Amino acid sequence: MNSWVNSAEILGSDLPLELSGTGNRRALLMDALREAVRSGRLAPGTRLPPYRSLAADLGLARNTVADAYAELVAEGWLAARQGSGTRVAERAVPVTPVHRPRTPERAARPVHDLVQGQPDPSVFPRTAWLASARRALAAAPDDAFGPGDPHGRPELRRALAGYLARVRGVRAAPERIVLCSGAAHGLRLLAEVVGGPWAAEEYGLPFHRALLASHGVGTRPLGVDADGARVDGLTRRDRAVLLTPAHQFPTGGPLHPGRRAAVVDWARATGGLVVEDDYDGEFRYDRQPVGAVQGLDPEHVVLLGSVSKSLSPTLRIGWMVLPQRLVGPVVTAKGEREQFSSATEQLTLADFVESGAYDRQVRRMRQRHRRRRDQLVAALERRAPHIRVTGIAAGLHAVLELPPGTERSAVRAAAWQGLAVEGLSDYLHPGSEGAGQADAPRDGLVVGYATPAESAYPEALEALCRALPPG
Asked: What are phi and psi of 130, to 5 degrees?
């Protein structure tokens, strides 16, 4: 940029009013400049006029403008280099001023959300959902508006039994399905009914491990490689094993067929339970979704699922497909009445599934996520070809493998660029390094590509590439 912007471009037409009030003129000028950056009137890299010129335009003392520039440079809003003048700092949003407390990982409120597992709320199928709600309420029996059955509405259990059999290869009658408010709720109930200890993949959701621990169920890690969890590490002492077989979370890849058979053999031989978290198994891009392990042995596998990825996490509806022996104990643990999931939303979802709207929504989201994934891969090939991308055959995220020792600095750099993104180590089981099952912890970023709006996604990818360590 060869010329600088003028005062009106910086501060807008309200400038005289902003600086004409009582109070410190330097402070007023600084506030106006910060607001110009926040609002986007001043983009990163924009060159500001010399302080003498701006002082003349505004009728301020030169020292007032010079001091304002200097303090904003110290705060991180501006950058000054000899011979290059003063510019807006190269970052998506400015950092919090230095006199205010801030976290080390996130210097400013994120502009772009690349945290995994969160669908874009703008693509919720409002029209189709409303149509299903109207039909469901019109046809609802009177008992739908009374105390809820802890099994869940029979209409939704029937709809799910048909859908899961058709799409995921699940073998279950509606009587085997118990509705819950999501996978976390299902895990709480299973922890109470089954007890511990459990084995779990060395990479997984820390929230799930903490939830089990809060219910007295400890977990120990199973190593994970390109073929999924190393289930040969299971023992007779394990009461259950928590797996994500369709798409190992977060490293990616389905559980190898030989290991699927092996984990079922383990459950049969020991009386153990396989808890199959169908986290994002519907979103597969290289072929049809992998069938559920539950189909191999319905009496030794529990399938957990929800609509949090396909529709919205605000719809607190999930399901457990249970072995017959566990249905009664789980319902007892849940309580005499349905307290967690709205009966009207269950009825609406039943109609949504039965009408084919759910299939259409999943297809739509699968196409959208695949396009987002391809954009991510293309941006990395163009801007950071030294970074390897894995786990992209399915799901709502990818793993960017980083050179050893660079993960923390990459997370900090991403925060500096205004990105919310997580490191792979955030998902590592705390007992992995000494467990004998796991390899050395890997450095990486877990990049969710589902959340940003379409218009913001290219900018988010550019900011991500700027945050990556050089090749």
From this structure: -65, -40
Q: How many residues comprise the chain?
A: 471
- DSSP 3-state of 324: helix
Q: Residue 333: how many CA atoms within 13 Å on its side-chain side? A: 20
Q: Which residue has the tokens 């006199």?
A: 99
What are residue 444's DSSP bridge partners? 401
* Tokens coding 236: 């007779």
| DSSP codes, 422-436 | EEGGGGB-TTSTTSS
What residues pair up with 38 in beta bridges, in sequence order?
none
Determine the Cα–Cα distance for residues 359 and 167; give it in Å rounded to an integer: 9
Q: How do residues 321-330 score in pLDDT, each as one tens digit?
A: 999 999 999 9
Beta bridge partners of 378: none
pLDDT in tens, 209-235: 999 998 899 999 999 998 999 999 999
φ and ψ at residue 312, rounded to 5 degrees: -170, 140
What are 78's strand-pairing partners?
88
Q: Are strands 273-277 and 240-243 parallel, antiparallel or unpaired?
A: parallel
pTM over 0.85: no
* CB distance 87 to 79 below 8 Å: yes
E strand residue ranges, 82-226: 85-88, 112-113, 177-180, 198-201, 219-222, 224-225
Cβ neighbours of residue 326 under 8 Å, at least 6 residues apart? 190, 193, 194, 302
Which residues 6+ apart lie within 8 Å of 269 measured at CB?
none
Find out whether 426 and 386 touch, Cβ atoms under 8 Å.
no
With H, G, I as helix, E, B as strand and everything else as coil, classify residue 66. helix
**Alpha helices, DSSP H only, in 302-356?**
324-334, 343-354
